[in-house]
Prior knowledge:
- By secondary structure, this protein is α/β, with parallel strands linked by helices.
- It has helices at 50-63, 76-84, 98-106, 157-166, 168-171, 184-196, 200-209, 218-226, 238-245, 277-287, 289-298, 308-311, 330-344; strands at residues 3-6, 29-33, 42-46, 69-73, 92-95, 126-127, 131-144, 175-178, 213-215, 232-237, 251-254, 260-268, 315-317.
- It folds into two domains: 3-136 and 264-318, 3-Layer(aba) Sandwich (D-Maltodextrin-Binding Protein, domain 2); 138-261 and 328-344, 3-Layer(aba) Sandwich (D-Maltodextrin-Binding Protein, domain 2), CATH 3.40.190.10.
- Strands 1, 2, 3, 4, 5, 6, 7, 8, 9, 10, 11, 12 and 13 form a 13-stranded mixed sheet that branches.
Amino acid sequence: MRYFYIALLIFSSTSFFSDLFASSLNIEASLSYGDEKDEPDLQILGAIDIDVFDPVLSAFSRKNPRISITYSMASTADIYDAVRQENHKYDLIMSSAMDLQMKLVNDGFAKPIDILEEVDVPAWSHWQDKLFGFSLEPIGLVLSASHFKKEDIPITRRNLVSYLRANSENMQKKIVTYDVRTSGAGFLFATQDERKSNSFWRLAEVMGGLNAHLSCCSGIMLDAVNDEEFLLAYNIIGSYAEKRSRFQKNLKVVYFQDYTHLLLRTAFIPKTVTDETKIIEFLGFILNETGQNFIEKETDMISLRSSILKENPHFKPIRLDTGLLVYLDRLKRERFLEEWSSALIQ
């Protein structure tokens, strides 16, 4: 039996990279699947919005109705803190914060499992036998459709810089992007931009000179662009934007052709788990050919072997490797945030 357990959304203002994480785990929403039991067979903690991940959980439950599942949603920062403190009861940890997931796994909080011989996944989508990517998310630009003519739509970051400079009066206070001091996703995207392109800091300085607004959350930014409070939102998760654009008609999603980052949603089994049998069954489902085809065709997520990767060579998956840990070093992080603040906050 499938039923709603909690549908209350809670927004956290916790500073993402503070050492003073909240001691409690704020569950934003929760949903259960399969047979109702006093204690679920499989408890998943994830940062994926329930409406995005529900089709996958429902499909697995239809194939395995006797396995009771509870999926609980929390912020990436709260998930990181709960796992690090071992202050949780979950069997599987899922998050889009690739760097924090890698940090947890690298620091010994994940359990190795023997599953790679049973699934055919790209080498860049897993780290050792502990951390596994299962879907991709393009990171894009969202424009106010009513404001931008077709010929004005920037297709590279250089195009965007040129457009902003040429239209500085109209774009003053009309740009919004993540505040990387409080947003884990924003920090990851910005640091990956710096690794990928020399043009990032030039773009950051131009946006700062136009008094870009800084925000915590993609939903808030998308609503503001749709209402023309802002005309442009930079570094937005594509699936969220595209889903919103179906009913918020003033949203235009653009993927840059110089490069478009593809974020990996990842999962690992905590080392505290004593019986991983049912968890491996679920992981096998989302990683095998059947599950990947389902993700590709029936959800707003992109599978690991999507034809989109071949059709769009500028789509670049962020690899799961220890390079993700570079900006989690305290000094490196502080230097990046100082430079970012100088560019964006003018």
